Amino acid sequence: MKVRTRFAPSPTGELHLGNARTAVLNWLFARRHGGAFVLRFEDTDLERQVATAEHGIVRALDWLGLDRDEGPFVGGPHGPYRQSERLEIYGEHANRLLSAGLAFRCYCTTEELEIRRAEARARKGELRYDGRCRDLPREVEERFRGEGRRPSIRFRVDPGPIRYADRIRGELTVHGEEIGDLVILRSDGRPTYNFAVVVDDLLMEITHVIRGAGHLSNTPKQVLFYRALGAEPPEFVHLPSVLAPGGGKLSKRAGATGLRAYEEVGYHPDAVLNYLSLLSWSSPTGDEILSRERLMAEVDLDRLGAANPEIDPAKMRWLSGQHFRRESIERLEVDLAGRLVDRFSLGETELRALTEVLRERILVLSDANDVCELILPEPDLSNSAVREVLEEPHSARVVAAVTERWSALEQWTRETLREALLEVGRDVGIKGRAFYHPVRATLTGAIQGPDLPDIAYILGAERTLERLRRGIAAAGA
RNA sequence: GCCCCCUUCGUCUAGUGGCCUAGGAUACCUGGUUCUCAGCCAGGAGACAGGGGUUCGACUCCCCUAGGGGGUACCA
To answer: Is the C-beta of residue A124 closer than 7 Å to nucleic acid chain B?
Structure first.
């Protein structure tokens, strides 16, 4: 049977690392087995205003490179893919259960239920529905109807063990008496979450339900629905919950940063994909820096742990850097161009040189700004730190020697610049700080930054030599 | 309150009864890369939550406790 997975967020807000990890595993597993990845929005409970959230989610998925085979905006044979557009379908299925005697109409109002729950809580009793409408005589039903009560439809949950399986945890059992009769259709006709999910997953022919462990306790209820509808449940895989750094659940104040923010800071999307798949999973090879292709080939449902992992921002940044190091110059150049060209009015050769240097040092794309900020603007030679360096006795001589040697260069490459610099150092007989600082200060107006040959390489021969000559003048003065 | 799940270095993890004086990665510390920052390279320190069992032998199996996560809704 063809593997079909789905990602079913409710379009309330942005995707965060926790949601995204669920999407990632569903996508990876589908791709690994040549299956289909379906997107579905669970929006039954929401009013409008979700349109922007829908787009935000799709955007985030696109950024991570998780393409959908079916879903909103792309369509597919099992649509519609928004629960709000499937209301009649849920109604039909609920009625099927009703006529089969597996469900019944419950005339209790929300208020009555709440009062009973409060009482139960007060005397420390069971909070569950007491089943009072299970077998209502026809006359009573008529009377309730006459009173204007709108019934909800409840599913009969009989006492006794309910067995279900989770791929990660194995066979599990709960008891029907701990669940109670479940509302599947509210009195206003909208389905409840657990019922809608089952109807959708069934109709969409989902084979593997991969979702957060928060749904573990919903699973037995859903298994009951599958059976009642005459179907076998799919395989359930409950991924451990992703926790915020320092523990605790992902929340507004801790770690629930939207994916958009990671995109803006400039994390490599493949690194985020890589990082997320490494939560609860590890490659049998023990490797951790895994390309998109390797992830698609290797990530499977075996080797999934059961403990809740915490996000480690530092490791994610490190991975991002690793992915940039392996990125092609051409691709990185495109990413960098979007952030730097206008802001620093870069030319083609400058951008290329910058990309070559930056590829070896950035962790996230925004690191590039700092480097540009430091070396691209005309250096300010008037600040005290720079003045101090330039006033050293040998500074003028050092800068002049470097200028002379570099201006004689036939090839302006990082390598030739570096070799030439080393030679000058030996010739002049000055080394360390005394040698490098005057050159650095002259070139950037700072005494801290990337390697000098790299700076010269990015600036290009003309600008480098011009700055150096100005430095000689300043040092001589 | 009741029910369910989880528990190896700070963090992510390897480990399925002896291969473990517990391996890797990150973070941290130190050194190197004839200047600095980042990067990179090398080295160092760092864990089986606690207590009972089972066994010739437990990180690995069972029980209890603690801690964490989730559920108990006409929320999703």
So the answer is: yes
Which residue carries 């051409």 as its tokens? A330
Residues 289-328 of A with CB under 7 A from strand B: 303, 305-312, 314-315, 317-318, 321-322, 325
Could you tell me what percentage of chain A is helix, strand and coil, using 3-state DSSP and rounding each to the nearest 5?
50, 10, 35
pLDDT confidence band for A404 (50 / 70 / 90): very high
Amino acid at A383: N
Nucleotide nearest residue A186, measured CA to C1': B74
Establish whether the CB of A145 is closer than 7 Å to any nucleic acid atom in strand B: no
Cβ of A256 near strand B (distance < 7 A) = no
The whole-number pLDDT of residue A46 equals 66
Q: Is the pLDDT confidence value at A122 over 80?
A: no
* ipTM confidence score: 0.94
The answer to whether A356 CB is within 7 Å of strand B is no
Q: Please report which helix (H) or strand (E) contains residue A293, including its range.
A: helix A292-298
Domains and CATH numbers, chain A: 86-239 (3.40.50.620), 384-476 (1.10.10.350)
DSSP class of residue A82 equals B
Residue with tokens 């952030």, as numbered in its chain: A339
Contacts of A98 (CB under 8 A, 6+ apart): A104, A105, A153
What is the pLDDT, as a whole number, of residue A118? 81
Report field, pTM of the whole predicted structure over 0.90:
yes
**Whole-number Cα distances in Å, A57 to A70, A210, A221, A325, A381:** 15, 18, 28, 28, 49
Clarify whether A252 is annotated catalytic: yes
Burial track A52-72 (b if 16+ CB lie within 10 A, e otherwise):
ebbebbbebbebbebebbbbb
